[in-house]
Specification:
About 45% of the residues lie in helices and about 15% in strands. The chain has eleven helices and seven strands. Strand 6, helix 10 and strand 7 form a beta-alpha-beta unit. The longest helix has 12 residues.
Length: about 200
């Protein structure tokens, strides 16, 4: 039987801060059906993914604009109005990070995020300043759910997978972490976070 984890590894988007392209694109496409079509067929998550791996926003937007010139302005909004996709920190997570910090628990960020946006994102909440380290895919060239990025956070910060709790809103990332031996928490309900951390013996 595994013991109590001694570290917490946090995903960032929709775990610490709320991120949703619709927050921006509902302004550009007030018709919900049109917005859904654009995000489902043009600026898709599959298209966005390479920026988390190190491709620049400019290169990614230019390539897509060449294929969809009728949507050029909306595509470039992904770069120029990126901050409008965020709707602020998640208070329950901020409170949990502060409580864990007060208890001396080591905490780290492990995020799929562009090397161009991580600094502005990490400035969105004082909770980021309480973390002991971070792994950003766009800086490292490896991404979740690949095993390399999970091994990297362990190697860099000196703990074994079974000594850490990994918190993420993505089921695929949770499955990957669990397969490597992490304790895991699929983040679906902010209100349940505190009690879950208590259940792991961290608070």
């Amino acid at each position: 039987m595994r013991g109590t984890p001694r570290a917490v590894v946090w995903d960032v988007g929709n775990v610490i801060v709320r991120w949703d392209p619709r927050t921006l694109y509902s302004k550009i496409f007030p018709d919900p059906a049109q917005c859904d079509r654009f995000l489902g067929e043009v600026c898709t998550m599959a298209w966005h993914g390479p920026t988390d791996g190190g491709v620049t926003f400019a290169d990614n937007c230019a390539a897509l604009s060449a294929r969809h010139p009728e949507h050029e302005a909306a595509i470039w909004a992904w770069k120029h109005r990126w901050s409008e996709m965020f709707s602020g920190p998640i208070p329950e997570t901020e409170a949990a990070i502060a409580a864990l910090h007060a208890h001396g628990v080591q905490q780290y960020a492990l995020t799929n995020m562009s090397h161009e946006t991580w600094e502005s994102t990490f400035a969105m909440s004082p909770a980021f300043g309480l973390l002991d380290g971070r792994i950003v895919s766009g800086l490292e060239g490896v991404m979740k759910p690949g095993p390399e990025i999970f091994r990297l956070v362990c190697d860099r910060y000196g703990f074994a997978a079974d000594e850490a709790l990994f918190v993420d809103d993505g089921a695929g990332n949770i499955a990957a972490a669990k397969a490597l031996g992490f304790h895991t928490l699929h983040f679906t309900d902010p209100a349940a976070l505190r009690s879950a951390l208590e259940g792991f013996g961290l608070l």
